[in-house]
Amino acid sequence: MGLRGARREAERAAAYTADQLLRTGGILRRTATTADLRAVFRTDQDVNDAPYRERWAHDRVVRSTHGVNCTGSCSWKVYVKDGLITWETQETDYPSTGPDRPEYEPRGCPRGASFSWYTYSPTRVRYPHVRGVLLELYREARARLGDPVAAWAEVTSDPVKRRRYQSARGKGGLVRVSWQEALEIAAAAHVHTIAAHGPDRIAGFSPIPAMSMASHTVGARFMSLIGAPMLSFYDWYADLPIASPQVFGDQTDVPESGDWWDAAYLLLWGSNVPVTRTPDAHWMTEARYRGQKVVVVSPDYSDAARFGDEWLHPHPGTDGALAMSMGHVILTEFFVRRQVPYFTDYVRRFTDLPFLVELDERDGLFVPGKFVTAATLGLGGTEDGADGEEAAWKPVLLDTVSGRPVVPNGTLGDRWSKRGEGRWNLDLGDLDPQLTLYGPESKAVSVLLPRFDGEPPAVRGVPVRELAGRRVTTVFDLLLAQYGVGRAGLPGAWATDYTDATQPYTPAWQEAITSVPAAAAERLARELADTAVRSRGRCMIVMGAGTNHWFHSDTIYRAFLTLLLLTGCQGVNGGGWAHYVGQEKVRPYAGWQQLQSAADWVRPSRQMAGTPYWYLHTGQWRYDPHGADALASPTGKGLFAGRHTADLVAQSMRLGWMPAAPAFSANPLDLGRAVQDSGHEPDEWVAAQLAAGKLRFACEDPDDAANWPRVLTVWRANLIGSSAKGNEFFLRHLLGASDNARAEEAPPGSRPRDLVWHEDAPRGKLDLLLALDFRMTSTTLMADLVLPAATWYEKHDLSSTDMHPYVHAFSPAISPPWEARTDFEIFHTLAARFSELAAGRLDVAYDLVVTPHAHDTPGETAQPGGVVADWRDGHPVRPGRNLPHFTVVERDYTAVANKLAALGPLTEERGMSVKGITVRPAAEARWLAARCGTARSGPAHGRPLLDTDVKLCEAILALSGTTNGRLAAEGFERLAERCGPDSGFEALAEAVHERRVVFSDTQDRPVQVGTSFEWSGKEAPDRRYSPFTVNTEHRKPWHTLTGRQHFYLDHDWMAELGEQLPVYRPPLDLTPALSAGEREVEVRYLTPHSKWSIHSEYQENLLMQTLARGGPVIWMSVADAEAIGVADNDWVEAVNPNGVVVARAVVSHRLPPGTVFMYHVQERLVNVPRTEATGRRGGVHNALTRVLVKPTHLIGGYGQLSFAPNYYGPTGNQRDARTVIRRRAQEVQY
Amino acid sequence: MAQVAMVMNLDKCIGCHTCSVTCKQTWTNRRGTEYAWFNNVETRPGQGYPRRHEDQEKWKGGWRLDARGRLVPRAGGRARRLARLFANPELPALDDYYEPWTYDYDTLISAPLGDDLPTARPRSLIDGRPTAVTGGPNWDDDLGGGPDHLAGDPVLQRLNERVRLEYEQAFMFHLPRICEHCLHPTCVAVCPSGALYKRIEDGIVLVDQDRCRGWRMCVSGCPYKKVYFNHATGKAEKCTFCYPRIEAGEPTVCSETCVGRLRYLGVMLYDADKVGEAAAVPDERDLYEAQLGCFLDPEDPAVVRAAEATGIPHDWITAARRSPVRDLISTYRIALPLHPEYRTLPMVWYVPPLSPVVDALTRDGHDGEDPAALFGAIDTLRIPLSYLAGLFTAGDTAPVEAALCRLAAMRAHMRRLNLGEDRDPAIAHGVGMTESGLEAMYRLLGLAKYEERY
Q1: pLDDT tens track for A446-495
Q2: Residue B104 falls within a domain, yes or no?
Q3: DSSP output for B366-381
Q4: Is B311 on the interface with A (CB under 8 A)?
Q5: Mean pLDDT for all residues in chain B
Q6: CB contact under 8 A, A1165 and B165
């Protein structure tokens, strides 16, 4: 018997013994056993299962949710035991969506599920903190001077002291102070800054109001009362799909995720739904079971890709080429080879395709020019206003029946004019818009159409007709030419067929650019259009940051939207675009808007566009080495020649296109006083001063100390860690901290023409960075003053999203622990201290407020024709036309706290305007007075109180149409007056007018909102929200020039960039190749949203770090890792001129070679060693980016291309970055 | 007897790990169980957690048939197990799980003025010393680690065909795992202290915290590695199927918080006398059918009488009739057991995932509206059938293919209804179902209302 045999024998014997024991035991115990004696059932013996019962036991469950930076708006149960928060699970009580579809329950994600970790975590901010160096300086000056404001003035204006505390930023040394002292410092800084520099040198930054509306509102309201600008965030985040205002005249309006269910065909394009829309992803997985086809377009094999019936992986940033080729196929097969009545009817009624465009001669050929308007053709006549300007806002089309050019109803000319009353609608009456001029006898001319694939412009024929001595064609005919869809007899270069790779935009042409097989592009287009025919428009594209964060994302999106508009999918349930990138739908919009801008007390407020603000104030403009014409089209007129992007920014500000903060290189309180003293109208006074050269725009010398921002308050946000594109430049110029940037400044000759260049760029512009937070972030680490905020489980607030149609409450599960306070309380106590210090220092002041021409106001008709009439170039100065608007407002700085805590009278007196509709909530003001009580004395005497967070929430709900049907109904009545009686708005008003949501409803359970003039879609229990259904079902115009969805944009600057029509523009390639040495690779650097965080939040959360890799990582392909000898989990460094990142590598074959991912906002906070490159702490995803401004985003004063906060403005895009990656020494130093 | 069982529809799992976090927060975020995840989610292919836990050659979990065809724990008979009580080589070490860590968070607030930004460096939760993070409970999430690492997946290694782990052919899905609450649990059988028990009333397998002596034989015995050793109390702990909630009529935490809405809970009646026999069928590919054979039909009057006789309450019998788990397992036969070859007769079953067609199909210009092409032919799915069979059917691809075909048929059938087209009964018949059967299955999987999931 060998060893093995012996063992077997021993085991056999042991098994036999065990069996015998079991058998005996069975007999002895007299308990039930199975026949084979394998299992014993015992009921005679006690077990101790108490520990788990005790563990599960809890005292109460409180409904709350997670605020800001996440758009999930999920309702959660927060468990409390012995007065401590223990954990959270999701609520499941959303109102039903109906018996024939899935429900919203449960919404949530692992990030939210780990939130309670923060409550008692070691990174919790428990007390107010100030940087020790600053505190020492302040206390010394305070003691010596005996005055907080004088102390602040001295510390910040003494260059040595200033440098001392600014250079300590971000280097630790925070010390605990009392609330009293912290508030005194903050209040003193505000008072001093307003007195010395002006309120527009202060700014507030707090994004995504929908996710904790009261917390956002209270701070924004404080800023608005003191006259400080609020900085926009949606455009700055590059989440704003700038194509939306361009095409729809709407910021962003998208379907709730429940409407994905209605789609018959779903494209997930650059959107990783399971990761970034975790609570909503189930609608996609479930809709597949209803027979929906899902196609995923993504460069990596993503969490979403695994659900796709097909996965297409174009090279990053080339998505537009794929979409353009799909447009080529759809136009060819569904518009030229055959016509589909559903499609042609849709585009005629709801798009600008039939409108006429003039062709301008250029070098013997033609280029697309301006829309032909009633003014062009002299159709207006005297009724169109004295100067005929109204006619300039009335584009025309040809009527098939009469063959004559006519102005249809619903153009911008009908929106604001007296004569347009009742006519601003999409009723065509007897009109039959002619889509094309192509016909047996049509004449044709050759048009130059730019292409950006490295080839010269295409020359292609379009059919034309002569009108009033001008050659005109339709947008549709231009579109066919642009897409390269030929028709017999038209001159020019056309593709022979789909396999012709030489001509844009064939499927074969795109294959060479994207790597997506031509056959796939072709089939996808056909499938999409075919499904749209059969389902009447139920095809949807979910588009995400993967396609939206690019410099040229507007061109990518316009190519997407073309597919949806051509196939009649927009404004249809289950169809259209579904843009989910940082969306922030404040469903109770009107109330939030009114209160956060303090429009109840003072109008107008200052609203600043984020990107130009940071571009100028962080000095990033100094590093742009190329001219503004680097991106211009060869078909342009050379408008940007010899100019720098910063010149265009300055021009947009002086023309009133974009806002400016600060506006002038003088204190606006001094200017306001001067206007007041002069007895002139502000417009008149400013125009005269400018003409005399006595007044200078601050944007023309941003580095002059007179024009610096001085105080910045960040709450509900992590600006420095999360959204600071060009992070190292923020540190260097704005904060004066240490940095890792090595970029060269623009050499002489490449510098701005209109801006003053200081040889020594300022370091440390900000006097005070004030941060409110409950956890430590890059912003709190850099801040001079950190105030401990309550978490979202510690306060009352409201939440809504566009992912679902409900509003629901935050509630305190516990009181804020340690010395934490709610944002609401912090701003109220700050306002109180501020008002005290203002007495005798600021008192009552007159503030000259500068506002740009705003969208959805008559200001959007400031600059007819979309031409640049700069007064600097000799055009007459006309405030409100080619200058901003100017207003002098009175500010009683001693009354700020009182006004913050009460609803002012202007709400009833002057009404609330949202999207051009004004409603007067007198009834609501009375209701609020009864509900909330009134101020007994002081400046707000008799006004309804907003002195608690609950009352503020109550006011937001009471003053919004979505939650107060009476206001919605009033808004629809106003709309009916403008749109005419046949639009059916009375019925809509009737349907909604009795709906009412109060705060306690939202505490009980999420409540569905109602249809309102605030949004473009309809809400009902039996249908899901889909945008623009009000437009398609009630014939209401879009808020654009033609009143229709726009394919064509005729502004001068659009033409200059060659982007009048959808076009393919590749990812930016402005920087020279980064030298990649041995064991280095140069790669495209993408920063998609992470699975383990919501931006920076949760990134440092121990649970999330445990499920991830324990620190910052860069995902790279197997090939790139091999090329530099990197194994999984090795430390690597990514270096480019903007900065350095040190991280561990995650090697994976799901990444394509040549591209790396550093998931969004991996900060320096956790597990980030010093770099080899600089010896300093590396990291932050934005260390390798620098913001670049696209000129077309600066346009203003022209229809839908007009400013409104978070609506139109340059995006802080960051996707076009490249970097070198190398393996570094594996021994790291912290 | 009656058992509360679970089915997870992997075709809906988005890999978000919400279940893991809510479970961890509720049950194991305490000292001694830092590394323990009663519920975890694995990316497949991948090594899982603890690493390579499916390698029973190494860990010797579950049962095997001895030379005489009798079931013995793979870890050996009682004698062998007793001999190894104090030095058990089949016990995963900390590295096989991971060394839990935290960070010096406090430094972010308290760091004195220095020359650079403070950062919180990692520190071991075991010995408190600075550490480097080299492993975690979800290390290969979303195919992290690359082909070399992922090739260590034991299921992949057992495949006969070669699977390419390359960009264009990439495939993955997510596999949430909890204790299987087996009908034939090895952990219970191998415990020297009799501390593990399977509750008679609902089949939940628990560790009696008073009786446990910390021998850890259960850790070795469990082939799913779902029993953990609490190093602070010295006792074994495991998923409790949230019995305090189940007893109150609430779903488990992992089920209710699943945002993919993919977990189903329900009662299964089974014949306890058949269990031993079923676990001992000679061919491991017959285990799936054998386990199905143990389940009893609650509509059968004889079964109801017998159940009532053994004291199963009426409402449990009603629950068994309405059990969504039974529908998925027995009626539609789209749910399959995880690793039946371990012979523990697991009671957490899985609907296998559909997956997109490989690129090859994208390249030809076939008719997009042909249902087979629209949703991909089953034999061209990205995830190799054999891989799924390696997980669910001991390598037999036929049941997996049948389940996937039923899912695909449901989609094709519903697409016609969605687009208002004529029905085609051939679709349902082709997969052995009726149209109303497909529609009922659609309702359960697609609408998945709360009250029908649990």
Answers
A1: 999 999 999 999 999 999 999 999 999 999 999 999 999 999 999 999 99
A2: no
A3: --TTSHHHHH--GGGB
A4: no
A5: 93
A6: no
Contact assignment for A517 to B363 by CB distance below 8 Å: yes
CB contact under 8 A, B133 and A1110: yes
Say which CATH number the domain at B176 has: 3.30.70.20
Q: Does B102 touch chain A (CB under 8 A)?
A: yes
Q: Does A1106 touch chain B (CB under 8 A)?
A: yes
The answer to whether A804 and A104 have CB atoms below 8 angstroms apart is: yes
Percent of chain A scored above 90 by pLDDT?
92
pLDDT tens column, A1078-1125: 889 999 999 999 999 999 999 999 999 999 999 999 999 999 999 999
- B218 & B360 share domain: no
Evaluate whether A655 touches A1197 at the Cβ level (below 8 Å): yes
Q: How far is CA A231 from the centre of its chain?
A: 12
How far is A958 from A999, CA to CA, in rounded Å?
9
CB contact under 8 A, A1106 and B100: yes
CB–CB contact B276 A1129 (8 Å)? no
Confidence of residue A44 (pLDDT cuts 50, 70, 90): confident
Q: In terms of domains, do B307 and B398 share one?
A: yes
The pLDDT tens digits of the residues spanning A904-924 come to 999 999 999 999 999 999 999
The rounded distance, in Å, linking the Cα atoms of A344 and A568 is: 9
Contact between A220 and A204 (Cβ < 8 Å): yes
- Gap between the Cα atoms of A518 and A506, Å rounded: 8
Let me know whether B24 and B68 are in one domain. yes
Residue pair B338/B62 in contact by the 8 Å Cβ criterion: no
Q: What is the number of structural domains in chain B?
A: 2
Residue A513 backbone phi and psi in degrees, to 5: -95, -40
User: In terms of residue numbers, what domain contains B420?
Assistant: 284-453
d(CA A493, CA A290): 44
- B291 and B208 in a common domain: no
Q: Is residue B64 part of a domain?
A: yes
Looking at the structure, do residues B194 and B78 belong to the same domain, yes or no?
A: yes
Q: How many Å lie between the alpha carbon of A262 and the closest alpha carbon of chain B?
A: 9
What CATH number corresponds to the domain at position B310?
Answer: 1.10.3650.10
| Residue B423 buriedness (CB in 10 A; 0-12 / 13-18 / 19+) | exposed
Residues 499-558 of A with CB under 8 A from B: 517, 519-520, 522-524, 526-527, 530-531, 534-535
The residue ranking higher by pLDDT, A383 or A711, is: A711
For A1107, which of B20, B256, B413 is closest by C-beta distance? B20
Cβ distance of B109 and A174 shorter than 8 Å:
yes
Question: CA angle A245-A251-A255, nearest 5°?
Answer: 115
What is the model's pLDDT at position B360? 45
The reported pLDDT for the residue numbered A26 is 45
Cα–Cα separations (whole angstroms), residue A355 to A373, A380, A403, A802: 9, 17, 13, 33
**Shortest Cα–Cα distance, A301 to chain B (Å):** 7
ipTM: 0.96
Whole-number average pLDDT of chain A: 95
Whether B240 contacts chain A with CB within 8 A: yes
CA angle A585, A586, A591 (to 5 degrees): 155
Say which residues have a Cβ less than 8 Å from residue A190's Cβ, sequence separation at least 6. Answer: A202, A226, A711, A830, A834
Of B133, B210, B415, which has the smallest distance from its Cβ to A1111's Cβ?
B133
* Closest approach of A1100 to chain B, Cα-based (Å): 9
Q: What angle do CA B355, A109, B109 make, to 5 degrees?
A: 135
* Owner of token pair 């031993």: B276
Chain A within 8 Å of B255 (Cβ-Cβ)? no
Q: Does some domain include residue B122?
A: no
Residue B9 falls inside a structural domain: yes
